[in-house]
Amino acid sequence: MGVKFFGQFLLEQGLIKSEQLLATTQFQESRNRPLGSIAVAKGYLSAAQVTEINRQQQSTDRRFGELARELGLMTPEQIEDVLATQRNTRIRIGEALVELGFINEQQLTAQLKAFERDQAPYELARVQLPPDTPHAQFASVCIDLTEKLLLRAGGLSGKRGVVVVSGSERPPSALLTVRIPFSGAVRADYTVSASRDVAFTITRRMLGSTVTLSDELALDALKEFCNVVCGNICAKLSLPEAPAEIGPPEEGPGAFSQFPRGIMVPMHIPDGRFELRLHYP
After folding, report:
1. What is the DSSP letter of 242?
2. pTM of the entire structure?
3. What's the pLDDT score for residue 98?
4. pLDDT at position 92, please?
5. Can you name the residues that pair with 183 across neighbouring β-strands?
6. What does the pLDDT read at residue 122?
7. What does the alpha-carbon distance between residue 215 and residue 210 come to, in Å, rounded to a whole number?
8. In 3-state terms, what secondary structure has residue 156?
């Protein structure tokens, strides 16, 4: 049991091999084009305009089409056309496995039902917080924006695990950790911990694919990621009479919160680990 992806589930059932799963995900990537690529192919945008929209997405909780329309680069009709093309050409991993001949339609139907039963306890449509979580609205916004910007700024799609109560224990030493303190309307510590492969993916997305990767550079990218998320949290929660403020990001020994109570949210990512912690006085 545990949160997993359909491909992982099929591997555990012995229906496919790891090299078949890799080939399938590569096939998916070739078929499932991002909106920007489709817009360029249709002549609606230039590559430079797509790059600018993607750059702005890294610092705000906004959809590609929303930003393209706001910048005056695409009409609503063009955006809908691009979205329709993406929907009509998108292929799910199960469909890709069938198309490549790794499983058949009957196996796909049976295994999808088995997968749904296996994952039913972990399907969390809404953020479900432990009882008596302090500042519940703040926590829900933190979780929601972290998930969204992990995809939009970091290029990573994950599944949120069950939110659990967390004490003042430190994150695992194998993970790269960054903390940002909140003050003002809410006093709390926002802490992100990521395995190196996840941190390196975020680094490439935020700093460019040609950078020379290192733990130091990955920590810098995680700091920027946390700044972006927390800046959006402040913008969403702040009121004139009760502004939320953040301090500078910290890493290393300073990244471990001294507050005694909090919650931990695992974000399950294929071949990687990402955890969000929120701690309160």
Report:
1. B
2. 0.71
3. 93
4. 86
5. 245
6. 58
7. 16
8. coil
* CB neighbour class for 56 (10 Å; exposed up to 12, middle 13-18, buried from 19): middle
Closest CA to 211 of 199, 193, 223: 199
108 residue type, one letter: L
- The pair of structure tokens assigned to 278 is 């929120």
Unique residue bearing structure tokens 């890799």: 22
Q: At what angle do helices 6-13 and 105-119 cross, to 10 degrees?
A: 110
Rounded to whole angstroms, the Cα distance separating 239 from 45 reads 37
Beta strands in 150-251 (DSSP E): 159-160, 164-166, 176-184, 188-194, 244-246, 250-251
Say whether 276 sits in a helix, a strand or coil: strand
Please give the average pLDDT of every successive group of 10 residues along the chain, which has 281 residues.
73 89 87 88 92 80 85 92 88 90 92 83 66 87 88 79 80 86 90 92 82 88 90 80 83 79 87 89 88
Distance, CA of 265 to CA of 227 (rounded, Å): 18
Query: 260, 265, 221, 253: which is closest to 124 by C-alpha?
Result: 265
Torsion of CA 61, 132, 273, 109, to 10 degrees: -80
**SS3 call for 189:** strand
Total residue length of the chain: 281
Question: Rounded to whole angstroms, how far apart are CA atoms 81 and 67?
Answer: 16
